[in-house]
Design goal:
single chain, alpha/beta, OB fold (Dihydrolipoamide Acetyltransferase, E2P), Rossmann fold, eight-stranded mixed beta sheet, 9 helices, 30% strand, binds S-adenosyl-L-homocysteine, metal-binding
């Protein structure tokens, strides 16, 4: 094989893309991963790392560009860690996500008969984030900055715009930054663990006009809160809620467990289809509302409810999926581990007048065993775990419950594929639809339909 040495400059054809959106060049069968290179391109690159099974290259020049290459519209794109695919056309992004799922399920597992549909995309794949979580820090001159983290680091990039978040978020972000400077408000330092303001979290309703601003602080004492509240109310009279969340932990977790309402309502309201939801600052809520409707629509189609079914909504968050299904189900049981989210789910059931729902706080893997012991026999089970996928006990209990159908939503298709192999003993994985919840990024969301083998 040709030798490959660090710092060597080479030219090659890009033959594939990884799930991180990196171009792949092969020398014999040895892969070289080159970030920002696209399939079909001829590029000049420099080898920056050589390992036994692969190397990493740095793109130096695109000699023959792909038709899928576009100029990234965001001025921070090349340094910010928020987006990874702005240099690709949106159609190419959607195709890449579909092919990633096909690769995982058809080639790397036994599901070659499963239909993998085209990725459901957005008409306008920008400004979709209804929630922004922005770290606050200081630059080298001690001036306050707010933005997103640089790629693979915790350095904050001082930003005045972000093309994937709701427009009003950047307006709020820029004003808050100026007030922090003007009033010399204490800012948290990740290395010394000292200072007050850690994150600015902004949430906006999609159908509602609700807007929530949360200041995450390293401690309770927030003397200058009143200045920020007054300034926010004056500049953005349509803000409906201002909160302080206290996070004294030294971890990467953004929110702490305690929140105080500084002004207005303690939750924001939103609507998906005909169902209204109230959302606490600490509860999970899908960040791309218009795509969430498409995702849930696909899930409900897969569930094929007639009104007679007992449905489990596992990993239910604030109960969005279960409440979406309640009008066409006999009874919905939901489980979720975060207490404030389950409280939201219970209140949301009342708010929408549903009497056929039961929401329980606990670990899905434990509560599902209790449900089995209580003799609950689900017809359809909705599964929507976090990135790490399902606990094996959960899946084993699910197999014993033996519902007719399982609809599994995932934000990480590789753990979904792993879990599908356990369900495979009793269920046929019929179809998977990727839904683009996170345009311009490599994140892939999927919804999968499993039917009981007869
Ligand atoms: N179905 C919801 C939430 C999906 S996100 C929606 O569409 O909005 C995944 C949820 O699983 C989060 O709310 C998280 O708090 C919850 N979770 C994580 N681990 C869990 C576990 N072991 N048992 C139950 N819920 C869990």
């Amino acid at each position: 094989m040709e030798t490959i040495n660090k710092n060597e400059i080479k030219q090659g054809n890009v033959v594939d893309l990884t799930h991180e959106g990196h171009g792949v060049i092969k020398i014999d069968r040895y892969p070289i991963f080159v970030p920002n290179a696209l399939i079909g391109e001829v590029i000049k690159y420099k080898i920056i790392k050589v390992k036994k099974n692969f190397a990493i290259g740095k793109l130096l020049q695109v000699i023959k560009p792909s038709e899928q290459r576009v100029e990234p519209p965001c001025k921070y794109y090349w340094k910010c860690g928020g987006c990874q695919l702005q240099h690709m056309t949106y159609d190419a992004q959607l195709a890449m996500k579909q092919s990633q799922v096909t690769n995982l399920f058809h080639r790397k597992a036994q599901f070659s008969n499963t239909i993998i549909n085209k990725t459901i995309g957005m008409d306008h794949p920008w400004h979709y984030r209804n929630k922004s979580q922005l770290p606050i820090g200081k630059d080298r001159d001690g001036k306050a900055i707010i933005g997103y983290y640089r790629q693979r680091s915790h350095d904050i990039i001082d930003m005045d715009s972000c093309l994937i978040q709701d427009d009003v978020h950047q307006d709020i972000m820029n004003h808050v930054k100026q007030w922090i400077i003007d009033y010399d408000i204490s800012v948290y330092n990740e290395s010394t663990k000292k200072g007050l303001l850690r994150h600015l979290v902004i949430r906006t309703g999609y159908y509602s006009d609700d807007k929530m601003v949360v200041f995450v602080t390293n401690g309770k004492n927030f003397q200058q809160a009143s200045i920020l509240v007054e300034k926010l109310k004056e500049t953005f009279p349509n803000i409906t809620s201002i909160k302080q969340n206290i996070n004294k932990s030294h971890s990467n977790v953004i929110m702490g467990e305690q929140s105080v309402t500084l002004y207005g309502k303690d939750k924001i309201a939103d609507q998906l289809s005909d169902t209204t939801f109230k959302i606490s600052d600490q509860s999970f809520y899908q960040i791309n509302s218009s795509q969430t409707e498409k995702l849930y629509q696909q899930a409900i189609e897969y569930a094929q409810l007639t009104g007679e079914e007992t449905v489990l909504d596992t990993y239910c968050g604030i109960g969005t999926i279960g409440l979406y299904m309640a009008p066409v189900a006999k009874h919905v049981y939901g489980v979720e581990v975060v207490p404030s989210a389950i409280k939201d789910a219970q209140q949301n059931a009342t708010l929408n007048g549903f009497e056929n729902t039961t929401f329980v706080c606990g670990k899905a893997e434990e509560v599902i065993i209790k449900w089995k012991q209580q003799g609950i026999k689900p017809d359809v089970v909705m599964v929507d775990p976090p990135r790490k996928g399902c606990d094996e006990t959960f899946l084993q209990t699910l197999l014993k419950l033996n519902p007719k159908r399982i609809v599994y939503i995932s934000c990480n298709p590789s753990t979904q594929q792993r879990d599908a192999q356990i369900l495979d003993s009793q269920y046929e994985l019929q179809e998977i639809t990727p839904v683009d919840m996170f345009p311009q990024t490599t994140h892939v969301e999927t919804v999968a339909l499993f039917e009981r083998k007869s």
